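This part of the workshop introduces the protein records we will be handling. Getting from the letters to the tokens is the skill we practise here. The record below serves as our worked example for the rest of this section.

…
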Amino acid sequence: MKLTFATVALAAIFLAGCSPKENAIMPAPTAMTAEAMGRYCGMNVMEHDGPKGQVIMQQTEEVIWFSSARDTVAFTMLPEEPRDIAAIYVSDMSKAPSWEKPGAENWVDARKAHYVIESSRVGGMGTAEAVPFSVEQDAIAFAAKNGGRVVGFKDIPENYILGSQVPPSDAQAPEAHGAGGHHHG
């Protein structure tokens, strides 16, 4: 078979457009266990109420755990954290049994989730949370009940994630975050 210069050039352009990142298969999320310790708090992730997160690194496939979805998003924004991220997952609150027990195996790709920010619900460390949902309608219903607004991953304001956001004062009432919630601030 004789290849013309045009055919070879076209094939080279096509192959150059396919980066390894685009062809890589995203690793599946890992089920949360009692051994999952939060990156920033150093505590057992399962001991905290609200949505959790995990980041899987490309080279090592190491799973880094977070006690809140907000901390998970913060990891992606902080310049000192590694950039070789293979996958980012957060608890899918559309499938969560409850706020107190968001589930060990119901994860959603963090980049595809719908987040409720500025609500009255507090996250795992007693701070404002970015509450993730796989179903936009569930996020809208949550915001209608708990306040806040729905945004996509790229639309979460950096100052909301990295700032010292304090939830509204009524969020401190036990019914707002479930009895026995942990607040390690």
